[in-house]
Amino acid sequence: MHKRSVISAGALLLATSMTLTACGTRGGDSGGGSEGGGDSGDKVAKIGVIAPLSGDLSALGKGIENSVDLAIKQANEEGGIEGWTLEIAPEDDQANPDVGKNAASKLAGDKDVVGVVGTLNSSVAGTVAPVLDTAKIVQVSPANTGVSLTKGEDAENPSRPYANYFRTCTTDAVQGPFAARYLYEEAGIKKVATIHDKKAYGQGLVESFTEEFEKLGGEIVAAETINPDDDKYDAVVTSVKAKKPDAVYYGGEYPQAGPLSQQMKAQGLKVPLMGGDGIFSPEFIKLAGKTSNGDLATSIGAPTEKLESAQAFVDAYEGGGYSDDYEAYGAQSYDAANAIIEALKVSLKDAETAEDARQATIDAMADVTFDGATGKVAFDEFGDTTTRVLTAYEVKDGEWTDVNTEEFK
Description:
This protein has 2 domains: 20-170 and 303-387, Rossmann fold (3-Layer(aba) Sandwich); 172-300, Response regulator (Rossmann fold, 3-Layer(aba) Sandwich). The protein is built from 13 helices and 14 strands. The chain is elongated. It is an alpha/beta fold. A 7-stranded mixed β-sheet has the order 7-6-8-9-10-13-14, with helices on both faces. The chain has a 5-stranded parallel β-sheet with strand order 2-1-3-4-5, with helices on both faces.
């Protein structure tokens, strides 16, 4: 298998040209986010977080929450918005669309809430975004990759469904083809079996991967699905193994991907499993075990720890006393929170209450642009990030190792 470690000129320019100012002392694990804020006479504006803070995906959810908490603490310590103190309002969606909808309704009913960072899952965003849109609360996701959230269901005639919705991550329309190109052009793999978990994220990822892989000349030898509530995948593995693929592309998340990889190898299907950012977590390696070496994943952006623009974020997070890692979406969550804060600097200036500033915050978000942890933060006419850098990772010696970073074109 041919592998390389490349950061394209475009990605290098993004990585090296961005700077971030580190601030003060960070205290506590996901506190109120208001320490070091203004005087006691300040008005309060809350930034909500909707993410899985419990359950199988809580590692990713806590990384999102903590990164938002850090951004809020820094803004308060710097006196970012005169007359206002920012607070965090986290809600656990349990990676469940119905629970997420309830969380969104709760935040919408709080007159101090003026923005929300989240969600992790595209399927949860499908129920959250309309609630927040109706309440005129800006939403910025660090992780949703479902294309329809910003461009609607008709790919040929894109139309933005929610004026309040933005994201700091790339979409399946970019990530799936990026993975296909890596497998076909860099790894030299021509025959792939696909498996997805029937959820919006996994299905969308497999569809975009398949289209690009076949366009390149690759062959999809099997297309299977699993039930995300199951933990035994013998039948699917047996079916896929009979088709003799050179790799398996999985659309879904690490709680299922890890056991699937382990069971593939145990049944003699000793080929790489590749997935999207939903499997890019140390938790995948724990679940997949020692046979996960050689497995692959793509994730949004360049490796956080290698971005010059992210070093202040990494240092501040590590010094912040958080018990959980920032995980795959920490830097994107930090940038999402800071995007809201930048918009609030405009919308709260003359507002009497946070609720009064909701629509103005949405309006201001369209013009937000700044140098963030992940590079240049800005949004296009659909609310999508203008940054299209992605990275392919491989499990080597029990750790994710970046093997290719490029700006997708």
